[in-house]
Design a protein that fits this description.
This protein is an alpha/beta fold and 159 residues long. It contains four helices and seven strands; from the N terminus they run ββββαβαβαβα. It has a domain of 110 residues: Transcription Regulator spoIIAA (2-Layer Sandwich), CATH 3.30.750. The strands form two sheets. Strands 3-4-5-6-7 form a five-stranded mixed sheet. It has a two-stranded antiparallel ribbon with strand order 1-2. It is globular.
Length: 159
Amino acid sequence: MVGRLDDGQSRGMGVAASGRGEVEWMVSSGPEEVGDSEPVVVVEPRQDATVVHVAGELDMLTAPQVEAAVLREVRSAADVIVLDLSRVTFLGLQGLSIIVVAQEEAGDTEVRVVASTPVTLRPLQLTQIDRLVDVYGSLAEALAPATPQPGEPGRSVRQ
């Protein structure tokens, strides 16, 4: 599980047990000026997919931490990676580039994105990244088996 401690001072890595099995975690504190904008990243392995939950601001200062976690999971040979942006409060260009790079490096791994608010959905639409990856309105929809759209074999229904 990748996350941040409340005191913001500790750094560490390890493995913790949860009700769904082991989850990886990493705790870090960023530069003083970043403050509360530092994202929280939680990697949740599931039977049918690996979900990377992101919360907070995703911009040029915070993107490297998120990108490292996302690309590590993409390269782990999982069949499906779901990038859950439902708790992201700002999505900048660097955050958008993480999605593009993840899709480019995915190979046989299917990349799905959860964008449930205008904060995340609108930038994906304006940049047409929603045409590159499958975008869903909720985590439950993203974890459901893919349903082809008419005229787009193998593409999932987007919200």
